[in-house]
Amino acid sequence: MAEGKSFAATDRTLPTRARERARYDEETVHAILDEGYVCHLGFVRDGAPVVLPTLYGRVGNRLYVHGSTGSRPLRMAGGQSADPGLAVCLTVTHVDGLVLAKSAFHHSMNYRSVVVHGTAHQVTDQEEKKAALDALVDHVLPGRAADSRPANAKELAATAVLRLDLREVSAKIRTGGPNDDPEDLALPYWSGVLPVSPSYGAPIPADDLAPGIPAPDYFSAR
Fold first, then answer.
1. Could you please report the per-residue DSSP string of 137-169?
2. Mean pLDDT lowest among 70-79, 82-91, 209-218
3. Alpha-carbon torsion angle 60, 9, 42, 62, nearest 10
4. What whole-number distance in Å separates Cα of residue 45 and Cα of residue 57?
5. I need a labelling partner for 129 at 20 to 30 A (CA). Which of 42, 61, 157, 191 fits?
6. What residue ranges carry the coiled-coil annotation (predicted)?
């Protein structure tokens, strides 16, 4: 998909409530994904749902999910080109504010979320795997992949990566204040939004860091 396009809505990506909050344009979806650190990967194991938190990275309209070669979802996804893969649902959510209403019923949150449905496949091509791992490192901190030792053969063998194409995707966003009922507006309770945002502290050098190695310039982007 080229920039500016949108993902097609499907039965699984149409919300049952508050449909006006749904977004399908790539720009919004990419921005929400790029700002996150952890995704939740859902799949079915032995007839029961499982949801695992894990790192991810985006390259165009493709997500790469990090895992160990011994993890269950990676084994279930298979590694052969003819393997059907693993049906998954991946989510990323940012909480931007606590919405406090006059009534308990109307309390809410301002948020941005993305839900991805699709089939995940294990990455077996070594060059794609190396590029995916670089994308995972740079997703956490842009510029870090080039500023660290790449994985060696033993580490590559112990690391597994899932590939999930962005095709059946939706974003959902809530902004603004509480939606109080008119009859509650005169109640003597505070109402409004308590903003929530991530913060970064001063870098803490490792105990064994050699003297004279400065903090990287790309820290200033955080």
1. HHHHSTT-GGGSPPP-HHHHHHEEEEEEE--EE
2. 70-79
3. -10
4. 24
5. 42
6. none
Tell the residue number behind the tokens 């080109």, with chain if given: 81
CB atoms within 10 A of CB 188: 5
| pLDDT for residue 1 | 41
| pLDDT tens digits, 148-203 | 999 999 999 989 999 999 999 999 999 999 999 999 999 999 999 999 998 889 99
* Mean of all residue pLDDT scores within the chain: 91
Confidence of residue 220 (pLDDT cuts 50, 70, 90): confident
Report d(CA 53, CA 23) in Å as an integer: 24
Which residues does residue 53 pair with via DSSP β-bridges, in sequence order? 40
Contact 171, 29 (CB under 8 A): yes
Give the pLDDT confidence score for residue 18 in this predicted structure: 79
